Each structure stands twice: as C-alpha cells, then as structure tokens.
Amino acid sequence: MGILSFNGSYHFGRSQKLSSFVSGGYSIGIREGHISLANFGGGTNYWFRDRVGLRLEFRDHVDRDHNQYLSGRIGLAFR
Fold first, then answer.
1. Please, which residues bridge with residue 55 across strands?
2. Residues sharing a CB contact under 8 Å with residue 33, sequence separation 6 or more, in sequence order
3. DSSP class per residue in the chain
4. Alpha carbon of 53 to those of 4, 17, 34, 67: distances in Å?
5. CATH number for 6
6. Residue ranges making up the domain that contains 19
7. How many CB atoms lie within 10 A of CB 60?
8. How many domains are there within the chain?
9. Strand 18-30 and strand 2-11: pairing?
C-alpha cells in the first residue's frame, strides 16, 4: 500500500537543538484502488548540525469508517 499525503505543520522551539511539531492533513491510500484518509500526528527533530537532523514521527490515518492506520517513521530532516 502506498500513501500520498498533503499536510500542514506547526513547529515548536525552532531555534533549539530538540524541536517538536504537530501535523495534520489529507492522504490518499493506494493499493488496488484508492481510499481517502485524514491524518494527524507529531514528533520531534534533533538537530545535530545547523541544517541536518534526525526526525522521529508518529502518524494516524483515519478513513470515513473510523478505521485507523498507525505508523511511525525515523528519518533525516533538512532545513
């Protein structure tokens, strides 16, 4: 299953080494067709260099029948 998401986000403490954020938006789930989903989540970035950091994020995707699809992500962040 693939997911394409369009989100907005708000970041707390942008100038700090550890900065948290919340996000939410619209997603499309794709497999043998497609499904519309709302998503919301949050996480934190740890900036170990001026423009490169480590991101830890959790997100919940919800469909119109209130089924939930939880996910966690770890990755690089750039600013």
1. 45, 75
2. none
3. -EEEEEEEEEES-TTSSEEEEEEEEEEEEESSSEEEEEEEEEEEEEESSSSEEEEEEEEEEE-TT--EEEEEEEEEEE-
4. 23, 9, 33, 32
5. 2.40.160.20
6. 2-78
7. 14
8. 1
9. antiparallel
Mind listing the pLDDT tens digit for each residue in 10-28? 999 888 999 999 999 999 9
Residue type, 60: D
**Residues sharing a CB contact under 8 Å with residue 42, sequence separation 6 or more, in sequence order:** 20, 21, 22, 23, 57, 58
Residue pointed to by tokens 């989540």: 41
Give residue 17's region: left, alpha or beta (phi > 0; psi -120 to 50): alpha
For residue 25 the two structure tokens come to 């938006």
Summarize pLDDT for 23-70 with one digit per residue, the tens.
Answer: 999 999 998 899 999 999 999 999 999 899 999 999 999 999 999 999
